[in-house]
């Protein structure tokens, strides 16, 4: 074990295994773009911040850097705007003067930015291996198979796809093709209200995060656990009978966030004993047992707002990605802010965007080269856009 005062202040213990290892059994050769062409500066280069600043200054208004809330502090320092995935994609679209958008986030976010930005704008992901384990849990092939199962059960007409922003462009396109909508963790309730109301759905297939779907259906729409079934793409027919598909109001995809899924009911009980008067504040991607035991539940933007607006002396145990929790603690030394888990847990794919990759991408742009451009197939982009536009019309 190593000692890290900043992490100890959050109530967590640093270990040599500082990041959650995702996809431990996966074939490493299947990872997208792990190698970067050209010279990647060494992480130990003391000149990285100066080089990033110089390249950014040389590019001027031609580059716009987006930083997701879960990014590291040294990368966030170079972001022109910070936010959640949808806010960032919208911000990119609102800056047509920037021909290069450097997205410090993960792959599905860069895809959304490419869909929403103009044709002359290039979206760059500094490390192509920055994927998302949740988004990868629903492939286009699996989702088409699930739709076939729903068709076989004779209930496709009354089934509306609602897909979380944290999904690939292919899943967003599936959603648009079948008259559904995208949602974020901020508007999932409104998306489900629309699907069951104006859209006239009898049931929703919710992709790919089962926890956000279940928590929203139960806590916001008053459904019960019995209204929800889980479609497991690794089992024939999703592991569900035709009657189960027909009777369900929510068909939840068996996907989850590997970071938020780590928090347990025991974490909640333990922190309440350890920090008297603490308020447990969690993201709705957490498991049902955690969300139902928490004091406050909401999106990343909501979590930031609650902590920012709380009076001095407030105490929070926050259940979301550790980079953000650490930043909130640093910003509010007059409040007690601890991490909900006792062990360190960063999102390993978000952390792939580091200073060497940022410098490498910016210096290439300054030389007139574009590296790691993310482009979405035009037909996929058209249907994805339809589902995204549907979300924008939600009341
Ligand atoms: S925090 Fe979870 S949902 Fe977000 S990028 Fe990481 S794995 Fe994906």
UniProtKB/TrEMBL annotation:
Textual note on the cofactor: Binds 1 [4Fe-4S] cluster per subunit.
Cofactor(s) recorded in Swiss-Prot or TrEMBL = [4Fe-4S] cluster
Q: Which InterPro entries match?
A: NadA, NadA_sf, Quinolinate_synth_A_type3
Q: What class of enzyme is it?
A: transferase
State where iminosuccinate binds.
Answer: 68, 85, 164-166, 185, 283-285, 300
Report the GO molecular function annotations: 4 iron, 4 sulfur cluster binding; metal ion binding; quinolinate synthetase A activity
Binding of [4Fe-4S] cluster: at which residues? Answer: 132, 257, 347
Q: In which pathway does it act?
A: Cofactor biosynthesis; NAD(+) biosynthesis; quinolinate from iminoaspartate: step 1/1
One BP term from GO: 'de novo' NAD+ biosynthetic process from L-aspartate
Keywords for this protein: 4Fe-4S, Cytoplasm, Iron, Iron-sulfur, Metal-binding, Pyridine nucleotide biosynthesis, Transferase
- The answer to keyword rRNA-binding applying to this record is no
Q: Which GO terms describe its cellular component?
A: cytosol
Its annotated function is as follows: Catalyzes the condensation of iminoaspartate with dihydroxyacetone phosphate to form quinolinate.
Q: Which family does it belong to?
A: Belongs to the quinolinate synthase family. Type 3 subfamily.
Question: Under which name does UniProt file this protein?
Answer: Quinolinate synthase
Q: Which source organism?
A: Parafrankia soli
């Amino acid at each position: 074990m190593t000692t890290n005062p900043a992490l100890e202040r959050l109530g967590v213990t640093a270990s040599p295994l500082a990041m959650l290892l995702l996809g431990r059994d996966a074939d490493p050769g299947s990872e997208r773009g792990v190698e970067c062409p050209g010279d990647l500066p060494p992480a130990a280069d003391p000149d990285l911040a100066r080089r990033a600043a110089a390249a950014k200054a040389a590019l001027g208004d031609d580059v716009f850097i987006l930083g997701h809330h879960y990014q590291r502090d040294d990368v966030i320092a170079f972001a022109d705007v910070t936010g959640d995935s949808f806010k960032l994609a919208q911000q990119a679209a609102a800056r047509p003067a920037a021909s290069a958008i450097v997205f410090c986030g993960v792959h599905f976010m860069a895809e959304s930015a490419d869909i929403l930005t103009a044709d002359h704008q290039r979206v760059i992901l500094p490390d192509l291996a920055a994927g998302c384990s949740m988004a990868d849990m629903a492939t286009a092939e699996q989702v088409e198979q699930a739709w076939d199962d729903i068709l076989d059960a004779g209930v496709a007409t009354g089934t509306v796809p609602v897909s979380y922003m944290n999904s690939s462009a292919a899943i967003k396109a599936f959603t648009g093709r079948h008259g559904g909508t995208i949602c974020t963790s901020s508007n999932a309730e409104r998306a489900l209200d629309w699907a069951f109301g104006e859209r006239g759905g009898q049931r929703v297939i919710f992709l790919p995060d089962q926890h956000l779907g279940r928590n929203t259906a139960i806590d916001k729409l008053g459904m019960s656990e019995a209204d929800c079934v889980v479609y497991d793409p690794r089992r024939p027919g999703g592991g569900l009978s035709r009657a189960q598909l027909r009777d369900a109001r929510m068909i939840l995809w068996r996907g989850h966030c590997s970071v938020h899924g780590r928090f347990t009911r025991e974490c909640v009980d333990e922190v309440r004993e350890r920090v008297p008067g603490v308020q447990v504040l969690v993201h709705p991607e957490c498991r049902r047992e955690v969300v139902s035991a928490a004091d406050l539940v909401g999106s990343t933007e909501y979590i930031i707002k609650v902590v920012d607006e709380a009076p001095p002396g407030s105490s929070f145990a926050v259940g979301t990605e550790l980079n953000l929790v650490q930043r909130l603690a640093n910003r509010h030394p007059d409040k007690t802010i601890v991490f909900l888990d006792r062990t360190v847990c960063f999102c390993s794919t978000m952390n792939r965007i580091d200073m060497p990759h940022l410098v490498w991408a910016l210096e290439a742009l300054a030389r007139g080269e574009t590296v790691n451009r993310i482009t979405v197939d035009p037909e996929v982009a058209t249907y994805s856009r339809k589902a995204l536009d549907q979300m924008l019309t939600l009341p």
